[in-house]
Design goal:
Elements: E1 5-9, H1 10-14, H2 23-34, E2 38-42, H3 47-54, E3 64-66, E4 71-74, E5 77-81, H4 86-96, E6 104-107, E7 110-113, H5 119-125, E8 131-134
Parallel strand pairs: 1-2, 2-3, 7-8
Antiparallel strand pairs: 3-4, 4-5, 6-7
Length: 140
């Protein structure tokens, strides 16, 4: 069977426990790429956090699927954008207010959060180069 593309998950699949791509994986993916097979990373991460990983493969021309398919980037451009409308984000935020959650969301390269002190959020920030900002509804 002739494969045309390989789509790779990041966390727990492509990355080692040290958050890097193993030399063996890099070599295998390089050989596949040289044979004309498309190599693409698929992740829930933001474009910036994904770039830190994908740049290790030295294949900037290949698309990267971010936010679980919500955004597809290639060569620093957007191929597809499936963002939620701002009014829907506001509605979701209102619906979740009674659950004592720290509402967060990405808008392209910026990460918005109601509270910066969330322990889980701080953990996620350490994996991302995105900028943390407070939610300002006037920007929605």
């Amino acid at each position: 069977m002739a494969y045309k593309a390989v789509f790779l998950d990041v966390d727990g699949t492509l990355l080692t426990s040290h958050r890097s791509i193993s030399p063996g994986s890099k070599e295998t993916l390089k050989r596949l790429h040289e044979r004309g097979i498309l190599i693409s990373v698929v992740t829930a991460r933001s474009p910036d956090a994904t770039a830190l990983i994908f740049n290790q493969l030295h294949m900037p021309e290949n698309p990267v699927i971010c936010f679980n398919g919500g955004l597809i980037v290639q060569n620093n451009g957007w191929l597809a954008d499936h963002s939620l409308p701002a009014t829907m984000v506001q509605d979701i935020r209102e619906d979740l207010k009674g659950f004592q959650l720290n509402f967060t969301f990405y808008h392209y390269r910026d990460w918005y959060a109601e509270r910066e002190s969330s322990k889980g959020l701080q953990k996620r920030i350490s994996f991302s180069s995105s900028v943390l900002k407070s939610i300002r509804l006037r920007y929605l």
